[in-house]
Write a structure and sequence with these properties.
The protein is globular, with a radius of gyration of 23 Å. The protein has 4 domains: 100 residues, 3-Layer(aba) Sandwich (Rossmann fold), CATH 3.40.50; 82 residues, Dna Ligase, domain 1, CATH 3.30.1490; 124 residues, D-amino Acid Aminotransferase, Chain A, domain 1, CATH 3.30.470.20; 132 residues, ATP-grasp fold, B domain (D-amino Acid Aminotransferase, Chain A, domain 1, 2-Layer Sandwich), CATH 3.30.470.20. The chain has 523 residues and is an alpha+beta fold. The longest helix has 17 residues. An 8-stranded antiparallel sheet has the order 16-15-12-13-14-17-24-22, with helices on both faces. Strands 3-2-1-4-5 form a 5-stranded parallel sheet. Strand 1, helix 1 and strand 2 form a beta-alpha-beta unit. Helix 4 runs antiparallel to helix 5 and helix 12 runs antiparallel to helix 13.
């Protein structure tokens, strides 16, 4: 299959960079990696055809530098850019700059990113389109946007006044960004001033935008999202739903499809609303429309639209059999969607667990350090997406996701049993992880009954303590020996770019075969 480009720059790191590089390799496309100093020997760097240094980490000179990434594209001859998720993936200015440089952006248009990135404007557009939205306050009416009305960012006085009319509990949310940052639940009026200060500070740090909004807080809600896909001809479909209600600190850790909450009727209504939302935004390429569902009334409400590939996309790939990254490349190359809505059928049940280097006993604080021992599960129906191998190090500068462990089985009960087995077959020594915590969640009666909701973890597993204890000194000593042997086999120089032309040499040793999917040696 011929594409409109032959070389792709992956403007990201970790498991998503590895995932994209693998898809490009299978499509016969060349790949260009970028890396910060902290990632100089990272798996995505080892796996790509070329690798270019960006700068120190963390800093605006690395993965957030539009100018440096475009300069790498020029030096390497890359003709397309895939942003992955996080970093610049939902930055409209980045998408515009990529296109202005004559490159293909493997994602939605800058206009769609900008429209859906502002939660207030997105909500206004959804209201105008007839998509149900959560009652709330998003500011004073302002300019027209997407056929709806956008609103100026409200100040604290406005928010305090609006809260009195909305009633409690309320959710304070950052107007920009996502991932649970800049979000606070407020249960009574006296808590609101402090919540506004804390949410604004966090939003400024995470997104450079401290503007906030209010929404009615729906207790024990389910979080259900629909994968959508559009092409340049205006065709839009959804690729079924993902249940994402198991969260800690408003961030997902377990996802599954199909959602055990939805029946065929509710699935149809929500899927239609997701497609309508995407069409309203003039959307192309991959995106996700997120809803919250009241389990008592079975009413659903638009939450936000993520204008990028989601972390949990393997769940959808397993149940639909569609390679979403390959489809992103095809659509960005100008191809039409190869199927219609009626062609999309789910098969079996898929579950994904996110293995994080974090300490559940300490409020899920990130952990770091070398992976002294790292064993991934294997077997029928099991998939592992990872950006690390044994001997690599988890760096506190970046998200502590070690791997996404997914499985597919004929039904939910079988998938749950398979996932428990997969987690039991996973071993990590070095950084503290949430592995044992994930197993306990999966073994909870509420999970088996599918009565989980977005606050279930804080209500039921607060003060969680590990039952396994610390690894033995003997195990740590043996792991240290293994790590030392691995370090000796690694190219000590790491990737380099002394002449500004990129490093295209194989790194040698066992590391040249590590690509997160065990898919073969570096070309």
């Amino acid at each position: 299959m011929a594409f409109a480009f032959s070389k792709v720059l992956v403007a990201n790191r970790g498991e998503i960079a590895v995932r994209i590089i693998r898809a490009c390799r299978e499509a016969g496309l060349g790949t260009v990696a970028v890396y910060s100093d902290a990632d100089s020997a990272a798996m995505h760097v080892r796996m790509a055809d070329e690798a270019y240094r960006l700068g120190p980490a963390p800093s605006a000179e690395s993965y957030l530098s539009i100018a440096k990434i475009l300069e790498v594209a020029r030096l390497s001859g890359a003709e397309a850019v895939h942003p992955g998720y996080g970093f610049l993936s939902e930055n409209a200015a980045f998408a515009e700059a990529v296109r202005a440089a004559g490159l293909a952006f493997i994602g939605p248009s800058p206009e769609a990113i900008r429209a859906m990135g502002d939660k207030a404007a997105a909500r206004a557009a959804m209201e105008a389109a007839g998509v149900p939205v959560v009652p709330g306050y998003h500011g004073r009416p302002g300019v027209e946007a997407l056929g709806g009305v956008s609103r100026g960012a409200p100040d604290d006085a406005e928010l305090l006044a609006a809260a009195a009319g909305l009633g409690y509990p309320l959710l304070v949310k950052a107007r920009a960004g996502g991932g649970g940052r800049g979000m606070r639940v407020v249960r009574e009026a006296g808590e609101l001033p402090a919540a506004l200060v804390a949410a604004r500070r966090e939003a400024l740090h995470a997104f450079g935008d401290g503007s906030l909004l209010l929404e009615r807080y729906i207790a024990r809600a389910h979080h259900v999202e629909f994968q959508v896909f559009g092409d340049s001809a205006g065709r839009v479909v959804h690729l079924l739903e993902r249940e994402c209600s198991v969260q800690r600190r408003h961030q997902k850790i377990i996802e599954e499809s199909p959602s055990p909450l939805l029946d065929d009727g509710l699935r149809k209504r929500m899927g239609d609303a997701a497609v309508k939302a995407a069409k309203t935004a003039g959307y192309s390429n991959a995106g996700t429309v997120e809803f919250i569902v009241d389990p008592e009334t079975r009413e659903f409400y638009f939450l936000e639209m993520n204008t990028r590939l989601q972390v949990e996309h393997p769940v959808t790939e397993l149940v639909t059999g569609i390679d979403l990254v390959r489809l992103q490349i095809r659509v960005a190359s100008g191809e039409a969607l190869p199927f219609a809505q009626e062609d999309i059928r789910g098969r079996g049940h898929a579950i994904e667990c996110r293995l994080y280097a974090e300490d559940p006993e300490r409020g899920f604080m990130p952990s770091s350090g070398p992976l002294l021992r790292y064993v991934e599960p294997a077997g029928p129906g099991i998939r592992v997406d990872s950006g690390f191998a044994e001997g690599d190090a988890i760096d506190l500068h970046y998200d502590p996701l070690v791997a996404k462990i997914s499985c597919l089985a004929e039904d939910r009960q079988a998938a749950l049993a398979r996932m428990r087995g997969a987690l039991s077959g996973t071993a990590v020594a070095g950084p503290t992880t949430n592995l044992e915590f994930l197993l306990e969640v999966l073994e909870a009666p509420d999970f088996a009954k599918a009565t989980m909701h977005t606050t279930w973890i804080e209500e039921n597993m607060g003060g969680w303590k590990s039952k396994s204890g610390e690894p033995s000194p003997e195990l740590l000593a043996a792991a240290a020996i293994i790590l030392g042997m691995a370090a000796e086999s690694r190219d000590p120089a790491g990737p380099s770019d002394p002449d500004g032309k990129g490093d295209q040499r194989g790194l040698g040793g066992p590391w040249s075969a590590d690509d997160g999917f065990r898919a073969g040696r570096k070309r």
